[in-house]
Design goal:
The structure is a single chain. The protein has 285 residues and is α+β, with helices and mostly antiparallel strands. 40% of the residues lie in helices and 11% in strands. The chain has a four-stranded antiparallel beta sheet with strand order 2-3-1-4, covered by helices on one side. Helix 1 runs antiparallel to helix 2.
């Protein structure tokens, strides 16, 4: 509260900035000015005016504090408790309470004692909100991956155990009997030319047959026919000696026919044809 009799700080600084020749106004100059060193009366100095201004302001502040303590404000009724309503709102930034001035500490204490005990404060805003951070999400992801690996390992183990049990209990099927090997292909038939044959039962027949067969073989070799063979056979239960030449696979070929015709026409020096009855014969296996 500013009194009308005391000068303001602006007036004090304005009067101090005037030249010394000009006299200060009578209203702003204090009544008890100190005499100047020269013997004449002059206005107060700047320091004295500032000190006087500060003293006036301090007196005004003390008078205002005494007036506030003397007339306390009427007590306000206690607030009724609000209904139980849950309001979900984003967390708000809490502001630290500002300490009241020293002059109002006593008045606030008296008001609190007059009102009685204050009701207990409920939970503030944001206390029921669950806060999720990146670290929490990363930890949850790692836990999920670990559980997946454990489940996979258990599944593989159980599957292998079941497969082993199924293989152990499965009946062993008998192996099919081995197939008999395929018979080798039959060799192709061979044919030869039977030139002549003789009886070979008695010793006389044997000597005669051997001599005639040897003479004919030598005659054929002189004529250029090679490969003449003497073979002992049995025909109609009687042993015989036969004379054969050549081995053929196709007796119907023109070459085989020409060969047989040339042997049938073969003649000895005496003009006889010993192989006129020559013919194709299958070689026995």
């Amino acid at each position: 509260m500013k009194s009308k009799g005391s000068p303001s700080l602006y007036e004090v600084l304005k009067s101090a900035s005037r030249p010394s020749g000009e006299g200060a106004p009578a209203a702003s100059a204090p009544a008890g000015g100190a005499p100047s060193p020269g013997g004449g009366e002059s206005g107060p100095t700047l320091q004295e005016r500032l000190a006087a201004y500060k003293a006036a302001k301090l007196a005004e502040a003390q008078a205002a504090a005494v007036a506030t303590e003397a007339s306390p404000p009427p007590p306000t009724p206690a607030p009724e408790p609000a209904a139980a309503t849950v309001v979900v709102s984003p967390p708000a930034v809490r502001s630290e309470p500002v300490a009241p001035p020293a002059a109002q500490v006593g008045a606030s204490e008296e008001k609190t004692s007059e009102r009685g005990p204050a009701p207990e404060a409920g939970p503030g805003l944001g206390e029921r909100v669950v806060t999720l951070t990146y670290n929490t999400l990363a930890f949850a992801a790692l836990v999920g991956v670990g559980l997946l690996f454990v489940a996979y390992a258990l599944g593989v183990k159980v599957g292998r155990a079941r497969a082993a049990e199924a293989a152990a209990t499965e009946t062993v099927r008998p192996a099919p009997p081995p197939r008999p090997p395929a018979p080798p292909p039959a060799p192709p038939k061979q044919y030869t030319i039977r030139l002549a044959e003789w009886r070979y039962a008695t010793p006389r027949d044997r000597v005669t047959a051997e001599a005639e067969a040897e003479d004919l073989r030598k005659a054929l070799e002189r004529a250029g026919y090679r490969g003449v063979e003497k073979v002992k056979i049995e025909r109609a239960g009687e042993p015989r000696l036969a004379l054969y030449i050549d081995r053929l696979t196709d007796y119907a070929s023109p070459a085989a026919r020409e060969r047989l015709a040339a042997l049938q026409k073969f003649r000895l020096r005496n003009g006889t044809a010993p192989f006129a009855a020559a013919a194709f014969e299958e070689v026995p296996k």
